[in-house]
Amino acid sequence: MRKISTIILTDEFSTAEVLKLFLGEFDNLDIVEAAHNMSDVFDVISNVQDKSLFVVDLSDRTLEKLDLILQVSKNCPDCKILAMSDNPSVDLIIRIMRAGAAEFIPIPVIKGEFFDGVNKLIKDNEEVKKNRRCKIISVFSNKGGIGKTSLAANLAVELSKNTKENVALIDLNFQMGDITTFLNLKPSFNISYMLENLDKINETFLLSTLERYKNSSLYVLADPPYFKQADTIKPAQITKLFDTLKETFSYIIVDAESSFDGKNIAALDNSDIVLLVSVANLPALRNTQRCLELFDKLGYDKNKTKIVINRYMENDEIKDTDVETLLSKEIYWKIPNNYFAIMSAINKGVPVSDVNASTNVAQSYKDLAYHISDNLFRQNMVKKFENILNNQ
Predict the structure, then answer these.
(1) Exposure letters 140-155 (e unless 16+ CB within 10 A, then b)
(2) How far apart are CA 250 and CA 164, in angstroms?
């Protein structure tokens, strides 16, 4: 069995000795470098021909080492990164994971925790992915023409960029879906085909069948090409599809249909978050109010539904406070109004960030992706590390 090349980076001699001692107990690891000089580490990792493990201590020179983690994660896909620090905080851990580390261990190193972290990284990818907690995010409005699909497409693109994890984008607009137009895709397979072959689906099938967006980790499942195909789709099939996709994807973004039929309700029921999209005019807000009333009758947790105001302008006649008073709910996010940037992106079939990443609307989509992924990650990390932080 070929051993996994392991590289250690720490400024503390004592930490290096402990790590070498612990790592030496793994039969399938080979320590090829224990360094404190960052300039050599990337060259060593990039020259490894097979799988590798990078153990990096960020207690000192934190910003420089964050940049190094980002460089390794972008350029060395076969390298798993385990990060450490003697001053852990939730915000630091989020930055470390965002840069590309897969595991975090606090210092001083507890042997059991360290072994658990290393074992997670050197197991087969299939086992690791089965332990992943997938999040389903539906983008919904019962009123058309307010930018729901644009939000779903751009959010999915930014999540795949920011998290580097597999993201599925599903078009549940069974009659007139536009996701493929917004991203200029011509998929060979659609949701009808997928639902007919659920028993055959595994990760290999999904990643080879779903349409991959350029060279990203975003995969698109298109709407049916013929209206009649949608008539045969049942709500139970939607639930089963989501359960299947959860095994492979960290995030599932659903461009939900603007209706309350059984298939759409099944999608909303299975969602962890529903981004309820509206604009700041009275007819749209009245529709949003009715949606909230229905969600309440469906028994949805109030934190599940998030209000997103699209085409937001600070000088709108209807102010933020008016919206929140009418809906009895805080605004979760505001997407600024930028007609020219949005239309240019739609006409070119690309996300807004590809047209001009510096526009206010492109930055808003990017920040929303960070906000959602950070908050979901933060919820897990707070539970995991609250005892560590409280005992320091």
Answers:
(1) bbbbeebbbbbbbbbb
(2) 10
- Report the 3 state secondary structure along 223-234: CCCCHHHHHCCC
What kind of architecture, by CATH, is found in domain 4-123? 3-Layer(aba) Sandwich (3.40)
Look at 372 and 379; give whichever has higher pLDDT. Answer: 372
Domain 135-373 in the same topology as domain 4-123: yes
Work out the average pLDDT over 160-171.
Answer: 89
Q: Give the pairing type, strands 273-278 and 305-312.
A: parallel
Q: What is the β-pairing status of strands 211-212 and 218-221?
A: antiparallel
Beta strands in the chain (DSSP E): 4-9, 29-35, 52-57, 79-85, 103-106, 135-140, 167-171, 211-212, 218-221, 251-255, 273-278, 305-312, 331-336
* Chain-centroid distance, C-alpha 62: 24
pLDDT one-digit tens code per residue, 105-137? 898 888 888 888 898 887 744 344 444 578 999
Per-residue pLDDT, 306? 97
Q: What is the DSSP letter of 270?
A: T
Model pLDDT, residue 36: 72
**What are the residue ranges spanned by the domains of the chain?**
4-123, 135-373
* pLDDT one-digit tens code per residue, 36-62: 778 788 888 888 878 899 999 999 999
What is the pTM (predicted TM-score) of this model? Answer: 0.69
Query: At residue 339, what is the residue type?
Result: Y
Structure confidence at residue 38 (pLDDT): 80
Architecture of domain 135-373: 3-Layer(aba) Sandwich (3.40)
Assign 3-class secondary structure to 20-78: HHHHCCCCCEEEEEEECCHHHHHHHHHCCCCCEEEEEECCCCHHHHHHHHHHHHHHCCC
